[in-house]
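User: I've been trying to design a sequence by hand for this structure and keep getting stuck. Would you show me what you'd pick, starting by listing the structure so we're on the same page?

Assistant: Good idea, let's start from the same input. This is the structure you sent:
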């Protein structure tokens, strides 16, 4: 939940009201803003910012709100839409509703409708985890994808310990082979499927050699219950060791304009080994969409507002980090896009094997986000944008210390 007196509910950056209206309408209709602007005669007040009929650098635009199959990407051997959908929900305070971890609550039917709309819009990659809820998100995903299961790729994650009787965390990580095999049975039931297309270890277990984890996965693959596997936030050597046991399809780490850590080591290793990369929090937990201002304050609400504990969003850091939002807004305007679209397009432009999974609770945002696939950058534009982003120092850690220490962990050696 956010408290923000100056909050702009659309948050699409450009101050000009007609242009903002244009972007919002484009988002709701799921069309590229330049298409609408091409149909709108520029008024005196919009003459400086009116979009050209087709902006330079815009490639094969998706004008229908449908992701074109021609833009599919590969995660290892898996082919998926260029943008996926993150499905991370926890129980809401209201019975029958779900909350994301960023202060939004929707009823379960709306969540199901959101997923089905994504399928109708060409999204084929759906990300969830046993831990989201726990169990709740997998159940919603399973219900929503019934009937279209064969058209989509489901990715989920194991690796923590839960008590299934009370759907609560026992605390601690658990990637023992027998545990993985046991929890996969529950996942298949909740997801209403006979196979998991891409199964990730959510966090490396410091007690279990990654070779043993890969061994369990190989058994599950032999049984047809799992088709591909990946790791989330692993250490570099753990990636190499796992891949040597059995080829990894994807690494899933946080990556966005707000957190560019994977560029140092993880992305080069993925490139070297032919592993796909799925950035989580591609929108910087909403920050890059332009809806958060220096005055925004996050209000504690249990699991339902994670950002309250995130150092980079503490008031002083937030104020300093707004410099990045200014970059995003400036470039969004330059590319006739919304800030959210610009943030996703930047990720897509980094490597052809990167597939972001933005989370949202709103169909309008979903459609807006898919519009990012229509935005391309020339080599010169990308160099300039990358250099500009790199020049903005980000203050404050990306995660609370207790969560941060689970990242980059190396699995113990196999003896
Ligand atoms: N592997 C891991 O450890 C891990 C960790 C975290 C997340 N994940 C996965 O990654 C997915 C995405 O990450 P995330 O949800 O943490 O962060 P995110 O996608 O960076 O940000 C989600 C936030 O952005 C807002 N948003 C999305 N589109 C918007 C738009 N067009 N305009 C304005 N606001 C917009 C959403 O609000 P609205 O609801 O208002 O749109 C929400 O508050 C999750 O759903 C989950 O599946 C994985």
């Amino acid at each position: 939940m956010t408290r923000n007196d100056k909050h702009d509910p659309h948050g699409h950056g450009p101050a000009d009201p007609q242009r903002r209206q244009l972007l919002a309408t484009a988002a709701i209709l799921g069309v590229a803003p330049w298409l609408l602007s091409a149909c709108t005669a520029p008024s005196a007040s919009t003459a400086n910012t009116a979009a050209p009929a087709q902006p330079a650098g815009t490639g094969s635009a998706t004008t229908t709100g449908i992701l074109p199959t021609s833009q599919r990407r590969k995660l290892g051997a898996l082919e998926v839409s260029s943008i996926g959908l993150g499905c991370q929900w926890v129980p809401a305070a209201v019975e029958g509703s779900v909350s994301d971890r960023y202060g939004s609550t929707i009823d379960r039917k709306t969540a199901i409708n959101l997923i089905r709309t994504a399928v109708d819009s060409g999204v084929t990659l759906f990300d969830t985890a046993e831990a989201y809820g726990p169990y709740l998100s997998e159940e919603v995903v399973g219900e929503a994808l019934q009937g279209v299961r064969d058209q989509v790729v489901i990715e989920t994650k194991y690796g923590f310990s839960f008590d299934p009787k009370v759907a609560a965390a026992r605390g601690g990580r658990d990637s023992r082979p027998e545990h993985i095999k046991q929890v996969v049975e529950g996942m298949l039931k909740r997801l209403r499927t006979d196979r998991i297309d891409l199964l990730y270890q959510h966090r490396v277990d410091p007690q279990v050699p990654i070779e043993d984890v890969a061994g369990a996965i190989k058994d599950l693959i032999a049984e047809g219950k799992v088709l591909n596997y990946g790791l989330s936030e692993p250490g570099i050597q753990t990636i190499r060791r796992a891949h040597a046991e059995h080829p990894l399809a994807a690494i899933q780490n946080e990556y966005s304009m707000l957190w560019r850590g994977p560029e140092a080591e993880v992305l080069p290793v993925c490139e070297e080994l032919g592993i796909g990369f799925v950035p989580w929090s591609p929108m910087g937990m909403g920050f890059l969409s332009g809806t958060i201002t220096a005055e925004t304050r996050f209000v504690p609400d249990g699991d339902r507002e994670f950002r309250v504990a995130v150092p980079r969003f503490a008031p002083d850091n937030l104020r300093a980090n707004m410099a990045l939002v200014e970059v995003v807004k400036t470039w969004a305007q330059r590319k006739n896009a919304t800030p959210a679209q610009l943030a996703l397009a930047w990720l897509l432009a980094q490597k052809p094997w990167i597939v972001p999974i933005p989370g949202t609770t709103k169909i309008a945002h979903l459609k807006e986000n898919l519009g990012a696939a229509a935005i391309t950058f020339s080599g010169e534009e990308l160099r300039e944008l990358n250099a500009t982003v790199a020049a903005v120092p980000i203050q404050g850690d990306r995660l609370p210390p207790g969560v941060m220490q689970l990242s980059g962990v190396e699995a113990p050696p196999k003896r």
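That's my pick for every position. To get oriented when you compare it with your attempt: Confidence is low (pLDDT under 50) at residues 4-63. The chain has one domain: 2-31+54-404.
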